[in-house]
């Protein structure tokens, strides 16, 4: 079930109505049922994967807390890690590993190939796997008490607003909210609907219309001049941003309707002054997950310079592989790591980043530099293969001055895209619902009217799934 479908428009109000109608002590049953139904609308069979992962981590959490020795707790943690990561590897990375192994064996004329599997990737498996793993790791280290109520734990793993594409929530933040009685309030209704409306606008009007133009460039880059190719690359930067940002704030808004607060996943990332700040503002729930559960355990920055470089590369390469089973994702992550380190050492020696205040000329100059770097690295993320990505870069230089096909942006998209950019500039370190809530009534309703009109009239004619659903 997609957020931008009639099915969800019907499903969400029913879920919210039942949520407030049912007594507090039974709400977890209603939410768990709604969440499982929400997920089963894609593929019924895959709900058993979530249920299996839930039972494993629920059981190991309780047993870890009861275990008297560190060795037993470690074995239980290993069971949780191998089960969850094993499922993730099997469904997401098996064919990638098999293909590369087969290519390696072919070099030695070995004809015995590893057979490939033919199945659909379970939607959201990377998200709910990381969410439940964070719980097991926290219980192991004593940072979190084990949850004794299976229903609440199952709801933590499968809560429908953020189940398939995050934000990746921590148990200590999300689960206590399920146990508190939330009453219906105007503020929750208004703020939730504002976020949902804005999220639908930037997904359906901005991202989906940009997708058509981006597909034109990536499907036949040889037909375009260098200028139009680069224009297409920049449009993809905003397509993936508006697509994933749109999903995230719809998720946050849907939970807000029930009084449940999810973490912000984006904070104007293209206004970041460097790559480090970019990852503090982009997909925040994932970057903080890698910081807490990979970077810090590796030693963080409390190690030698050589080991710190290794830690940074590992984090970014694993982040790339998290996004997809492809060499292009691995290269994408590695490039971010390399640029991150270059900027770190440069900024440390020059000491220039902290001198610029928000909206100053220096801030915008650094933000433009960061945006161009990120845009070029996105090429590996968007391309189907390494060869396709390198072809894009080659044509960027070869097609200078070429008079080929023109990438034409429709006038209506220029208008709404400009409004989106302006709003993003105004939302630096702010959130849309709180920002708009400070407007006078006539201003708020004018914005509502523009957004609703744009969605009804100018939503993309093609249905593009949310990009991050594939991860």
Automatic annotation (TrEMBL):
Q: Could you list the residue ranges that cross the membrane?
A: 5-22, 46-63, 75-96, 116-137, 244-263, 308-323, 329-347, 359-381, 407-429, 441-461
Gene Ontology biological process terms in this record: alginic acid biosynthetic process
One Pfam family recorded for the sequence:
MBOAT
The Gene Ontology CC terms held by the record are: plasma membrane
InterPro entries attached to this UniProt entry: Ac/AlaTfrase_AlgI/DltB, AlgI, MB_O-acyltransferase, MBOAT_fam
GO MF annotation: an example: acyltransferase activity
Its annotated compartments are: Cell membrane
Highest taxon, organism lineage? Bacteria
Mode of membrane association: Multi-pass membrane protein
- Keyword terms: Acyltransferase, Cell membrane, Membrane, Transferase, Transmembrane, Transmembrane helix
Do the record's keywords include Lyase? no
What family does the database annotate?
Answer: Belongs to the membrane-bound acyltransferase family.
Check the record and name the PANTHER family matching this protein.
ACYLTRANSFERASE, PROTEIN-CYSTEINE N-PALMITOYLTRANSFERASE RASP
| Name used for this protein in its record | MBOAT family protein
